[in-house]
Design brief:
An eight-stranded parallel beta sheet has the order 1-2-3-4-5-6-7-8. The longest helix is centred in the first third of the chain and has 24 residues. Helix 4 packs parallel to helix 5. The protein is globular. About 2% of the residues have low confidence. It is of the alpha/beta class and 370 residues long. The chain has one domain: Metal-dependent hydrolases (TIM Barrel, Alpha-Beta Barrel).
């Protein structure tokens, strides 16, 4: 019989031995988490990174929250390196904040930045909200705003004066959309998020790593509504206001189903799309995406979403090159490789700047080739 103190000693030694074995196994790659697994490809294929766009381009989807006081010269240096002719700041706010942003632009780089206004939905349901919101938007356009940006909070977090979720197609918002049509300004609208955020977080969810690293992105049918319901609300809004031009952010979360997106574009001629934050979906289906861009070349705009200059190279390479099997810049967005779409020059010119010039006629055309 081994004394209890001896048993404790044996157990401690055994535990230490097991820990050493586990650490050794990890050291030699016998056990490795999915988060840590990131192999260097042995595949050797021709191709080079594309750090500068072939044509000057308009980034229709950017965010610069400090623009009223920002040193815009620092942005210009990075923009020139990328060949970005015009940055559209969707975070212009409203009232004095927006005027501060447009005044800063006018004073320093009047032809290199565009500012979009935003709407405060917190008063929806109160007397005269629609009329007041439309009037404020008109004042913001008078102060230099060229469009309206709607954040994803509409449909997800925004609540009316009684604490109820505001649907994307809530008729109380109609005066805003009508005012956009009257002013001939586009509405860039982001509704919902990738559908995978609503799906079960299991081994079948290809956004599993993203949800694990950013658990606040996980949603469900009651948080605050089913994905399809929010998307359907957005489409009903587009159909109810055919005279208003809508730019559907992130390809309307259908870049992974281009047949469906094509049908929506066919059904709603007032809807355009932009490619912010979804280039990984296009880069894994280069032939299908190429055909889609050729067919809908007049309805697609370039956008990036987050201001990370080093990440633009992925966009340029997917759009412009015929390269195969090159990495994406964020594993948690895409653990698969990218392939170039090899778009024709005529299509590239439309995506990079011509379609933006059509929707934003106030942009200085001299910045772009004829």
């Amino acid at each position: 019989m081994i004394p209890s103190s001896g048993i404790d000693t044996v157990m401690r030694k055994t535990s230490l031995l097991l820990i050493c074995i586990a650490l050794t196994a990890n050291l030699f790659g016998q056990e490795l988490s999915f988060e840590a697994y990131n192999p260097a490809p042995t595949l050797v294929v021709p191709g080079q990174p594309v750090y500068r766009a072939r044509y000057p381009f308009v980034d229709i989807h950017n965010h610069q929250f400090r623009m009223p006081t920002q040193d815009l010269g620092e942005l210009i240096v990075a923009m020139d390196t990328l060949n970005m002719a015009v940055m559209v700041n969707l975070s212009g706010g409203s009232g004095e904040h927006l005027k501060g942003a447009t005044d800063n632009v006018k004073a320093h780089y009047p032809n290199r930045f565009v500012v979009f206004a935003n709407v405060d939905f917190s008063g929806v349901g109160s007397e005269g909200w629609g009329r007041q919101a439309a009037a404020q938007l008109e004042a913001d356009v008078h102060n230099g705003a060229m469009g309206l940006k709607i954040y994803k909070s509409l449909g997800l977090r925004d609540k009316d004066s009684e604490g109820n979720r505001i649907a994307v197609d809530d008729p109380r918002l109609d005066p805003v959309w009508a005012k956009c049509a009257a002013l001939r300004i586009p509405v860039l609208i982001h509704s919902a998020d990738p559908r995978s955020f609503w799906d079960p977080m299991d081994s079948l969810n290809e956004r599993w790593l993203e949800l694990k690293l950013r658990p606040n992105r996980k949603r469900g049918d009651t948080d605050p509504a089913p994905w399809q319901q929010i998307i359907d609300e957005q489409h009903r809004l587009f159909r109810r206001h055919p005279q208003t031009t809508f730019i559907n952010a992130h390809m309307g979360w259908y870049p992974n189903d281009l047949d469906k997106l094509g049908r929506l574009l066919d059904e709603m001629p007032n809807m355009y799309v932009e490619i912010g934050a979804i280039i990984a979906e296009l880069g894994r289906q280069p032939r299908r995406a190429h055909a889609f861009f050729v067919r809908y070349q007049d309805r697609i705009l370039f956008g990036k979403d987050s201001w990370q200059p080093a990440e633009y190279a992925t966009y340029f390479r997917v759009l412009e090159s015929a390269d195969e099997y090159f990495p994406y810049h964020k594993k948690y967005h895409a653990f698969w490789a990218m392939y170039g779409m090899d778009l024709p020059d005529g299509v590239l010119r439309k995506v990079y700047y011509l379609n933006a010039l059509k929707l934003l006629p106030g942009i200085d055309r001299s910045l772009f080739p004829e």
